[in-house]
Amino acid sequence: MGITSSYQPLEVEQKWYKYWMKHNFFHSEINEKPSYTIVIPPPNVTGVLHMGHMLNNTIQDVLIRRARLKGYNACWVPGTDHASIATEAKVVAKLKNEGIQKSDLSRDEFLKHAWDWTHDYGGQILAQLKRLGASCDWDRLKFTMDDDMYQSVIQVFVYLYEKDLIYKGYRMVNWDPEAKTTLSDEEVIYEEQQGLLYYVKYPVVGSDEVLQIATTRPETIFGDTAICINPNDERFTHLKGRKAIVPIVNREIPIIFDEYVDMEFGTGCLKITPAHDENDKIIGEKHNLEIIDIFNDDATLNAHGLDYQGQDRFVARKTFSNTLKAEGFLIKTENYTNKIGLSERTKAVIEPRLSEQWFLKMKDLAKPALEAVMKDETVKLFPSKFKNTYKHWLENVRDWNISRQLWWGHQIPAYYLKNTEGIDRSKFVVAKTIDDAVKFAQDKFDNSKLTKNDLIQDEDSLDTWFSSWLWPISVFDGIRHPENEEFKYYYPTKDLVTGPDILFFWVARMIMAGYEFADQKPFDSVYLTGLVRDKQGRKMSKSLGNSPDAIGLIEEFGADGVRVGLLLSSAAGNDLLFDEALCQQGKSFANKIWNAYRLIESWEVDDSLGQPEAAKIGLNWYLNKFQKCLHEIEDHYSKYRISDVLMSCYKLVWNDFCSWLLEILKPAYQQPIDAKTKATCIQLFEDNLKILHPFMPFITEELWQSIKQRNAEEALIISQWPKQKSFDKSIIKSFDLSAEVITQVRSIRKSKNIPFKTSIDLKIENKENFSDSFDCVIKKLGHIDNLSYVKEQQDAALSFSVKSNVYYIPVEGSIDIEAEKEKIQKDLDYYQGFLKSVDKKLSNKRFVDNAPEQVVNKEKQKQADALAKIETLKESLQNLQN
Asked: Could you tell me which CATH class the domain 550-727 is placed in?
């Protein structure tokens, strides 16, 4: 079958993806083969493909395509995450643009808008994954809000509650004022920010004395309920039992004493705001202080903020500090750098806030998950350096705040009892359904007359990760039906590919869930990719404008080119410095493979021809070289060195196959080739396509199908991975030495302007006793008429060495010997002069004793290199003079 003169990736990609889908090659059903399962880290349902997704999903596709070729029943489960905070924020913003406030809608009305949004944008990232070549089993597509997934989440909540692992608690939480919801500690990122330190006067009641208090947040003064001093601080012992006045607010607050205060820090006096600081809350509980919450849920000041009610906290900070200054309470300000907590999702500054939330006890759940990774490596992390991070997190695990003040998500299955005044939040039951809740409430509150109308469900939703941690189990319905055949066949899954930034968020919690709900690990191995950064080392982001359009890259370089570009320099756990030049390199590689096949295809066969010796030897060498590479890449795969696999394949195909083997096999211009050589060459090319297919699925399938007419059962995607065999190292070594000889001959031709069409002789002093098996290859590729072995060279000749072997090219009639001698003498004079300057420096004891070791070693290396060069030049000059 003929192929076009140039590779057209977009046409090829559309054609073969449709073909693979048509023949259901991505779909998996239970059969007699061993399963190989990957679950996709579910992207946000309304997200778009970015470089991190590209890297992550390319690696997964490489693993799943190789598993198919290796004979596994490969199943890659795709899906999307409802992403409570991100999606609700987008829906709220959309409604606001339409003049609709969320607060004006009922929950059901809002959820209708959320579902509409999801249906409109939900398929975008999945379509983009298909463009990349992702061979997911699209028949198994899951969404964390699907009915069966929803039921699984609710069942788990009820189970954990009944096991006394879920409880309600009034705690200091991380409040996101933009999303208007609480966040877990792991969803807060900390950044250093430049701010001000405000020094404020607090008058002492009944005296002219004032206390100086330093604060970074003057707006919280409205919530102050005490001033705290270290009891050992003699400067203030006279204030025991006294009170101070909150400036502007004019509220009297006690002066308390606690060793928590560092006498050396600041002024030694600390204002206590129990409602807005975790440490202040602890002191407040210890000293039974009043708690005054000064913020609304959007971080504007409430009625406690007096004249500043309704102002944003940062606006209030500025206006209130101006008032403090005007009233004489502000002593001074200083520049101050401190760490600020930001919401991972909205980037809003987190506000510590006291709130009643649902929590999951984590300590006991973490124990088997910690042992699985650290003790016996039942679950292996690649690279293993992340084990220390994993260990630290799980040994210091805190209870998980699982409730979110959102409507988009899995509604918490707790039902409160209504009373004449509204809702009694101290009286509730937890149940899978409202019908179950009625029965439980009738029993719990000893009232058989209770109905649905007497109960109201908790309005909060569960943290998105509370559904994600069940993902490997719930996609196979293993929560609701743990004995179902698919769950038993596909679970545990094989590999998980994800980023280290969610090692605790997701990976550790999935391992906990696996042992708690399925009594076994969720996967064998976790491959942790690095972050994709730009070539300046900056993390790619929309705000920096340094993240390229993923689909734009595919359209410019082809999906195969982008896949190769991403993986050429992406080692596990290390950040990838992305440069579009890498994609160009991938595109060039695709073109190289394409043109290699065009060359092979162009060779016309003459059945009457016998096989040339050079072709026979060259093919035998490549068979061994391929097997050596196959052993290497199998080892790399076992260690999840995916980039190393690609580089091994890249070098094999570009250097060994295209640059060497095809040159060895290529018949003379417009001459035919023998049938055996071409057939064997095509077989080797097919093996190349197999090992390249996981990385470059489109071009490899196109070329595979171009070689000959094949039916669907013979498609490359479901063909067999090459079998590992033993290989002869000596043949590979002999070729490598011969290739060096050929390279040296070509270099001499080029430097001496000896045309390639001009045949030359080559004489060899075989001091190393090299095999002569590749002599015919040397003759062909070096265009050598006569190759002979000599004991010593006497005629004028150009020479070079490979190890201790010396190779001579007689030059009589080929070059101007006198001019060549003059050139060599000039080079010799230069290097001898250079050597003198280096020797002088190394003979200087002061330099050798005082210079850094690496500097001295560098000079010694220069000395050795110069000596070697001088020796070579002297030998070449001697050969020309004989």
From this structure: mainly alpha
The 10s digit of each residue's pLDDT in 132-191 is 999 999 999 999 999 999 999 999 999 999 999 999 998 889 999 998 899 887 788 899
Residue reference for tokens 């007497």: 454
Per-residue tokens: 781: 């590729």
Own/partner contacts of 596-599, CB < 8 Å, gap of 24 or more, are 596/653, 596/657, 596/658, 596/662, 596/685, 597/3, 597/685, 597/703, 597/706, 597/707, 598/3, 598/5, 599/662, 599/666
What is the secondary structure of 314-342 as a DSSP string? HHHHHHHHHHHHHTT-EEEEEEEEEEEEE
- Please report where in the chains the tokens 């990385």 appear, as a residue: 695
Q: What single-letter amino acid sits at 516?
A: E
pLDDT on residue 573: 61
Structure tokens at 377: 């490596």
**In the 3-class helix/strand/coil scheme, how is 809-854 assigned residue by residue?**
EECCCCCCHHHHHHHHHHHHHHHHHHHHHHHHHHCCHHHHHHCCHH
CB 745 within 8 A of CB 784: yes
All structural domains of the chain with their residue ranges: 33-142+465-529, 181-351, 550-727, 758-881
Task: Report the chain's terminal Cα–Cα distance, integer Å.
Answer: 58
Rg, C-alpha atoms of the chain:
37
What is the model's pLDDT at position 50?
Answer: 85
Q: What whole-number percentage of the chain has pLDDT above 70?
A: 97
Statement: residue 416 has pLDDT above 80: yes
The pTM is what?
Answer: 0.85
Residue 79 pairs in a beta bridge with: 142
CATH superfamily of 181-351: Valyl/Leucyl/Isoleucyl-tRNA synthetase, editing domain (3.90.740.10)
Mean local confidence (pLDDT), 551-580: 87
Q: How far apart are CA 647 and CA 633, in angstroms?
A: 9
Name the amino acid, one letter, at 662: L
pLDDT at position 809 is 87
DSSP secondary-structure letter at 78?
-
User: Is there a contact between 360 and 166 (Cβ–Cβ < 8 Å)?
Assistant: yes
The H-or-E segment that residue 580 falls in is helix 580-602
Q: Which CATH fold would you assign to the domain 33-142+465-529?
A: Rossmann fold (3.40.50)
The residues facing 808 across adjacent strands are 763, 799
User: DSSP strand E in 344-483: where?
Assistant: 351-360, 380-382, 400-401, 403-404, 414-419, 422-430, 455-457, 461-462
